[in-house]
Each structure stands twice: as C-alpha cells, then as structure tokens.
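To whoever is on call:

I kicked off a structure prediction for a single chain this morning and the downstream step that reads the tokens threw a length-mismatch warning. I double-checked the sequence; it's 182 residues and nothing unusual in it as far as I can see. Pasting both halves so you can look.
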Amino acid sequence: MELDCRLQCRMRATSRHSSNWQILMNNYLILLCSLLLFGCSESRVYENIGSTMSPTIQDGDKLSVVPIDGRCSEIERYDLILFFDPTTDEERYFVMRVWGLPGEKVEVENKEILIDGVKLDSSEIVSLDSVADYGTFKSVKLDDESFFVMGDNLENSWDSRFWGALSCENIVGYASVVAEGN
C-alpha cells in the first residue's frame, strides 16, 4: 500500500458530530464490506489533506480506496468516492459524497437538495444550513455516466455546484476512513 499518496482536498475544519469510536467502527465495517465485495488486492491508502469532507473526514485521516474499475452503475447515493479533479489535467484527487445519480435532475435550493423535484432527507448525513450561502443553484440533468457530488463541509467545498457533473471516467473508487490523522 502507498501511504504517501495525498489527496488535494480544500476544506475547513469543523467539530465532529459523532464520537471518534463510532466513526472509526462504522468506517471499518464499510471497509470490510468493500473488501469482501470488491476484493482486497487493489485497495490503496491515501492521506486526506484539507477539510472539504469535514466533519466526516478530517485533515490527515488515512483513507482506504477500493477501485471501481468502471463499475459506476454500482455507485449509490451518499457513497464516498475518490476522483480525479475534472477541471484540470493535473493529477489531483478529491474525495466527496455522491448526491445525484445518472439520469436524475439535481437542484440545490433554499437549503434543500431536490432530486427530480423531490426533497432529499439528508439530516443524518450532513447539515444543509450553509448551502443557502451560495444562493439558488441552477438545476442540472445528469447524463447516463455522470454524478453530482458535494463535500460535507458545504461552506468550503469546491464541487458539482461550481463545476457541474462528474463523469464516471474520473472516478477512482470508494473511499472510507481507516485511521484518524493528527
């Protein structure tokens, strides 16, 4: 495993909502399930830099990434994924949460995320209180190979609200925290 790989994430630290023990155990279970489903020989470890996914993933946390190998149809809403920055040719990675799936129409309006006109109940995932700071996001209709992603730290996340849909070809794999940093 390569422990020196680093993610280029832009974020600001905030307080954790759950105990460290619960988060660690939850992520170990996700990792174990991922390894059982997708095999363990391809898993790589990356270090998170920044706080785009704060409080879920903190600066310095180690992430296990299981490659999707083109299996984008298996990605589900709220999955954490690692992907290449879609706005540059530089090798820069981001980790974010999937909100919109292929074929869906996504809108971010009045502190709500609407999928095909229906409000998502994301209260257990992340608070959307800060999303209104950006005003009303123009809706986007995702094609058959695209996803809508946002960081959990909505006040400081450069994501699909700014650069649009994320293509399947940019997605590296599923991400989960395996060790807390700092």
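Update from on-call: the warning came from a stale cache, not from the record. Cleared it. Sanity check on the structure: Residues 20-38 form the longest helix (19 residues).
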